[in-house]
Write a structure and sequence with these properties.
The chain is α/β, with parallel strands linked by helices and 397 residues long. It contains 13 helices and 13 strands. It has 2 domains: 144 residues, Aspartate Aminotransferase, domain 1, CATH 3.90.1150.10; 220 residues, Aspartate Aminotransferase, domain 2 (3-Layer(aba) Sandwich). Helix 3 packs across helix 10.
Length: 397
């Protein structure tokens, strides 16, 4: 007997990273070349030793770390993150405007679950982070694609034209996954004002905020006294402190909205893991200098990518920042075929742009069919130089 299947789940595509892992199992790598895995933007190294030691002591000595925490998170961590946001952005954020979630993906899911229902619409710039689009599909919420220009930045005018009576939210990711671009502060403010005029939420996912190339606050929205009437801010500790497996993310919005989010979190996970919350708080309190060094290393790798693509025949770099580069490939084939060829002939695993755009025939999607996303954060500058050699050896054919 075949079990019943929720049609919304059936309509949701297979997770792209899982598909890429299947390619690995099916492909024989070229002899003499080690795999360059540039498919996923998750740190592969553990948190710094001092954090691990502090977490180990807490696990051993603090019985409360193994119990349920408050659904919206431990008060100490909520207060510390609120202070961090206030300091960084030059605004006022209080602990009751912050909640902890099991990773930033859950923060997005919780935000959408409280803002939109089946048949409602959420505007998503494309290329998009595929898990965002997957969750909207699972919930029966219509994804409204917002085109971006050659610079991968969305237009306020184009977005305004997409707003309908069913619209509930606009989503921005900056620094962007998959595009790598950093949205200018004036553009972010423009979207906040557009959302406010139409009674929509502006969801801003800043998972990669700690690796922004510019000094100072990435935008000024938190400096507005009424920021929480429009902004739903998402953050992740996973990338900053290399603690992806501990699943600690966060939402900042108004307290009334968090009361609704609490219903979602209590039903899905009840609370964030105790060791993860301890590690996030310890990181906020002790790893400022270490994180600044991590940022500088990512910026060095970003510079190596920009320099490398500038000398690479046929490739066109569209965006590069934080963990990602996004480029047009030079081959006469759709991006999924190019991805398989790169793995088979160059030992390089990257994801095709068709995974970050509306589904369909890649030949009928001229943008996605020419695009590749390169998650370079785990490749040091020596490996990035090697990447450029491998791509050059394939030529522009």
């Amino acid at each position: 007997m075949t079990l019943p299947l929720n049609p919304a789940l059936a309509a949701t595509f297979i997770p792209p990273v899982m598909e890429a892992r299947r390619w690995l199992s099916e492909t024989t790598l070229p002899e003499g070349l080690a795999l360059l895995n540039l498919s996923q933007a998750a740190p592969v190294e553990p948190p710094p030793a001092a954090m691990r030691a502090a977490m180990a002591r807490a696990i051993e000595e603090d019985p409360a770390i193994h119990l349920y925490s408050p659904v919206l998170g431990n008060p100490e961590l909520r207060a510390a993150l609120a202070q961090r946001i206030s300091t960084l952005y030059g605004g006022t954020v209080t602990a009751d405007q912050v909640a902890l979630t099991s990773g930033c993906n859950q923060a997005f899911c919780a935000a959408v679950a409280t803002l939109a229902g089946p048949g409602d619409e959420v505007i998503l710039p494309q290329p998009w982070y595929f898990n965002h689009q997957m969750w909207l599909t699972m919930q029966g919420v219509k994804t409204v694609p917002l085109a971006t220009g050659a610079d991968l930045l969305p237009s306020l005018e184009d977005c305004a034209a997409l707003i309908t009576a069913r619209s509930k939210a606009i989503v921005l990711v900056t620094p962007n996954n998959p595009g790598g671009v950093e949205y200018p502060p004036a553009l972010i403010r423009g979207f906040a004002e557009l959302a406010a005029r139409h009674g929509l939420a502006l969801i801003v996912d800043e998972t990669y905020r700690d690796f922004h190339s510019q000094e100072g606050p990435p935008h000024g929205l938190f400096a507005d006294p009424g920021w929480d009437e429009v902004l739903v801010h998402l953050y992740s500790f996973s990338k900053a402190y290399r603690m992806t497996g501990h699943r600690v993310g966060a939402i900042a919005t108004n307290a009334a909205h968090l009361a609704q989010i609490e219903k979602f979190l209590d039903t899905v996970t009840i609370c964030v893991s105790g060791p993860g919350q301890f590690g996030a708080l310890w990181g906020l309190e002790n790893l400022g200098d270490w994180l600044a060094g991590e940022r500088l290393e990512i910026l060095r790798r970003r510079a190596a990518m920009v320099t490398g693509f500038a000398g690479l025949e046929g490739w066109e770099l569209k965006g590069c920042g934080a963990y990602f580069a996004y480029a047009n490939h030079p081959f006469d084939a759709p991006a999924p075929e190019v991805a398989r060829r790169l793995l088979r002939e160059a030992g390089v695993l990257m994801l095709p742009g068709t995974m970050f755009r509306p589904q369909g025939d890649p030949y009928g999607n001229p943008l996605g069919a020419r695009e590749m996303r390169i998650a370079f954060a785990n490749a040091d500058t020596t490996e990035i130089t090697d990447l450029m050699r491998r791509l050059a050896a394939l030529g522009p054919r």
